[in-house]
Design brief:
The complex is a heterodimer of chains A (251) and B (382). Chain A is α+β, with helices and mostly antiparallel strands. Chain A contains five helices and ten strands; from the N terminus they run αβββββααααβββββ. The chains are: A alpha+beta (251), B alpha/beta (382).
Chain lengths: 251, 382
């Protein structure tokens, strides 16, 4: 019996070490076709949602996420313009109207979900799921904001920090995974549908499956709506001056 | 560059003479209102631009309106609505930014009300404002107390309440409200949410008494986009039957001006999420919602002092010592906008007309008229 147990333990340890070795063989930071850097986010389990938040954020539940890469920053105007020039893509959203002088390093906004998907496909990536986004936003310590659990108005571009417009990417410090502007600047498209979390009994508005989840805070929000758990429902064909995106990639 | 463009075309040179005349009219519109504005030499460029604006609007020429729209980004919406705005000035109504002469508030307001409603007595004016008023119906005053230096002055607000009480409204049927109680307390309003013989005064969110926001419906400001879902204050949607809007004369870094339309940004939650695109068309859509549109019966513009720089949180740069009254929020916003534009022009500051898109959006929704030709501005000094 002891031998069997020992062998079983050895097999489990070997498998675990093997997976770690496999992961560590991966590069922690890669450069992709669109010239953006991506960070490796190691997979794991975390508590998604909030116990005390708004209706759509409840209940808090455990979720497992596989390892993936995520863009360090949101896609900028210059990067989106590069994509449009390269492919001749006609965007549905009026991103050009939001592109002002000096904004080339600001996150691209006024793009629909379809536009974001098209960009991601061109760059050999995809949009993150809601789970991945929330997992990455808290950093390894699962903070509420990029920088901790307490609101700091100097640490992100939000309404509280008296930002009236978006700011250039990398203006503020990154979170524990090295991702910038997860708490503020502009909100970001995810590919998940706006549906109730598992175990949800009470009905919340807009959960008919026609909306997509947009995550993150923006320069129009107070800190409360910029927590990593906050969810916003947006129709896929809508573009807005405070919604941009960043991409993810499988290992 | 713009002047050169005007002088290049002979037709425009011809029109420039009209514009000059219009400019004089424009000057006259606000003559005497800018009491503390020292006589200063007006930069030629600014004068011509302002004259151009005033001339184009007041002459009402479609060609000039188009040209003006191109110059300033301001759009005049054609409509048949005729509006009346009264502006009553009293030179000793304000001693300083913080000191108001309460004794003259009631005569000033009542004079303005009579002129605005085109009646000979205050009673007749109130009868005209609230033709269907029944005892027990509640009238709410929407103030603005965001800026501690330039809020709706309590001396004026209480005198409006007194005037209503004299007309026959029970004091407890009057609600003075703002977003939060602390803002009202900061401006020294006397909080009262009890059923007694006093005017009620509280915020939508109070520490002890919390009416909160009406989550039974969402204000449809954006379609297909549910970020920062807006809900009306319960004071507006459930507790009151009529609204008197009491904005102050302030410029706004996003919306150009924050007057009657923009004042209702304090009537719902998550207002910050609706500040993109110069608050347009959200401010207009908000005011077009039946909760506000059907209940708002009067707009009283508190222009005792004004913030023309650094708004909405800036310090009042001028004592304008005026009270304005109208039933048309768009007309009073237009007059306020032109007034602030005039002050800023004289101070050599940039134009705010291109940013005030929400006023034209409101005119498109038939909330009133932003065509100066259709606005009868009645000025009086007492």
């Amino acid at each position: 019996m002891k031998k069997v147990l020992l062998i079983f333990t050895l097999i489990i340890t070997a498998l675990y070490m093997g997976s770690l070795q496999n992961l560590s063989a991966r590069r922690w930071r890669i450069k992709t076709k669109d010239g953006k850097y991506m960070r490796l986010i190691r997979g794991g389990r975390f508590l998604m949602g909030s116990r005390y938040g708004k209706c759509e954020e409840k209940p808090r539940h455990r979720v497992r996420v596989k390892s993936f890469y995520m863009d360090e920053t949101e896609v900028t105007f210059s990067q989106f313009r590069k994509f449009v020039k390269a492919t001749g893509y006609t965007a549905i959203g009026s991103w050009k109207s939001a592109f002002k002088r000096g904004y080339k390093n600001h996150p691209v906004v006024n793009v629909t979900y379809v536009d974001a998907e098209a960009y991601a496909k061109w760059a050999g990536k995809r949009l993150p799921t809601e789970q991945e986004w929330e997992y990455a936003a808290g950093g390894p310590r699962r903070y509420v904001y990029d920088y901790g659990n307490r609101w700091n108005r100097r640490a992100a571009a939000l309404w509280d920090s008296r930002r009236k417009t978006s700011v250039r990417v990398k203006r503020y410090r990154p979170n524990g995974y090295g991702l910038y502007d997860m708490t503020g600047n502009v909100m970001e498209w995810t590919k998940s549908k706006f549906l109730p979390y598992p175990g949800k009994r009470k009905k919340c508005p807009n959960m008919d499956g026609s909306f997509l989840v947009v995550k993150g805070g923006c320069y129009l929000f107070f800190a409360d709506r910029s927590r990593r758990q906050a969810r916003h429902a947006v129709k896929p064909h809508i573009s807005f001056s405070a919604i941009g995106f960043r991409c993810a990639k499988d290992l | 560059m713009r002047l050169n463009r005007i002088s290049v075309f002979p037709r425009l040179v011809l029109d420039a003479q009209k514009i000059y005349k219009g400019g004089i009219m424009f000057e006259n519109l606000f003559e005497g209102l800018n009491n503390s504005l020292e006589k200063e030499s007006i930069e030629r460029r600014h004068f011509l631009k302002g004259a151009f604006v005033g001339g184009a609007t007041l002459l009402g020429s479609p060609f000039l309106s188009k040209l003006m729209a191109k110059e300033t980004g301001w759009r005049i919406v054609d409509s048949n609505i005729k509006s009346r705005v009264s502006l009553v000035t009293h030179k000793s109504s304000m001693y300083s930014v913080r000191r108001v002469n309460r004794r003259v508030m009631r005569p000033m307001f009542e004079e303005s009300l009579k002129l605005g409603m085109n009646t000979s007595s205050v009673k007749a004016a109130w009868d005209k404002v609230f033709p269907n008023y029944k005892a027990g119906q509640v009238i709410a005053f929407k103030l603005t107390c965001l800026n501690p230096h330039c809020s709706s002055h309590k001396e004026l607000v209480y005198e409006i309440a007194n005037s209503l009480i004299r007309w026959g409204v029970k004091p407890n049927d009057i609600i003075i409200f703002e977003r939060s109680a602390w803002e009202l307390r900061r401006q020294r309003y006397r909080l009262n949410y009890r059923k007694n013989n006093r005017v009620r005064c509280f915020g939508t969110s109070n520490p002890g008494y919390n009416p909160g926001y009406d989550k039974s419906f969402v204000i449809p400001l954006r379609e297909g986009l549910f970020i920062g879902t807006p809900h009306f204050s319960k004071v507006l949607s459930k507790m009151c039957d009529y609204i008197i809007n009491v904005p102050v004369l302030k410029n706004h870094s996003d919306a150009g001006v924050t007057l009657a339309l923009k004042n209702h940004y304090g009537s719902f939650n998550n207002p910050s999420a609706f500040h993109d695109n110069y608050c347009s068309p959200y401010a207009a859509k908000l005011n077009a919602h039946p909760v506000i549109k059907d209940k708002t019966k009067l707009v009283v513009l508190d222009a005792l002092s004004c913030v023309f720089r650094g708004g909405p949180g800036g310090y009042p740069g001028m004592l304008t010592k005026t009270i304005g009254v109208s039933t048309d929020p768009i007309a009073i916003d237009t007059v306020g906008l032109l007034w602030l534009e005039d002050i800023r022009r004289k101070k050599g500051m940039s134009s705010i007309m291109n940013r005030s898109k929400h006023i034209a959006a409101g005119a498109e929704l038939k909330l009133g008229t932003n065509n100066p030709k259709n606005i009868n501005v009645i000025k009086r000094k007492i």
